[in-house]
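Private note to self, pasted from the team thread so I don't lose it. Backbone tokens:
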């Protein structure tokens, strides 16, 4: 059984650990490079991407994270985690650092300029016909994606309907919303399967 780490510098770590465990994964919290080494897959939680970027730098994790992503580590990023996986950011702070890996531009704090959070139904390709009740909290959206990126889902209601909110590029998966908060763990099941397949290929 593969071990899936949750980057535990900042953000809603515990909810992801619980969701991954319910998807049958063994879990590990990751704060140090040695812990990252032991992970077969990684979740980057929601939180605040500017803080997470600074802490990743301070904990000497940023370069190891970039190297493992280049080496094919499966990673799922939710909300701030989506920003961390983006190759390009709009409305970031000066000098904001990300891990990168997904050929996309995300806009920080794009949704909910009037309200901080809202819900929308979202259907995700490959994760069943029942829509998710997606919770967005000061969430980014995806402005544009490169040719190698698969769009998995778009917001379905509200003034910003149709914005891209879930993508996959190879072993990298990102959602603008927080499936760990709703008890609907299909995204974590999907990611755990992706990690299992990646681990089998490497054995
Ligand atoms: N819930 C979240 O993860 C919010 C993301 C946050 N607005 C950021 O820029 O990182």
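Design output:
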């Amino acid at each position: 059984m593969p071990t899936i780490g949750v980057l535990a510098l900042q953000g809603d770590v515990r909810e992801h650990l619980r969701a991954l465990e319910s998807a049958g994964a063994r879990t590990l919290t990751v704060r140090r490079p040695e812990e990252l080494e032991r992970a077969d897959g990684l979740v980057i939680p929601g939180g605040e991407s500017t803080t997470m970027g600074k802490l990743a730098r301070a904990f000497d994790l940023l370069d190891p994270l970039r190297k493992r992503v280049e080496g094919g580590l499966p990673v799922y990023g939710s909300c701030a985690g989506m920003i961390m996986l983006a190759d390009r950011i709009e409305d970031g702070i000066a000098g904001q650092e990300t891990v990168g890996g997904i050929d996309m531009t995300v806009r920080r704090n794009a949704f909910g300029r009037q309200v901080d959070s809202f819900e929308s139904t979202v259907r995700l390709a490959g994760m069943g016909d029942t829509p998710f009740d997606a919770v967005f909290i000061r969430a980014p959206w995806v402005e544009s994606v490169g040719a190698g990126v698969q769009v998995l889902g778009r917001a379905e209601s509200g003034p910003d309907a149709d914005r891209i909110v879930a993508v996959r590029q190879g072993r990298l998966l990102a959602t603008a919303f927080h499936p760990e908060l709703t008890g609907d763990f299909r995204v974590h099941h999907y990611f755990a399967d992706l990690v299992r397949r990646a681990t089998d290929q490497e054995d």
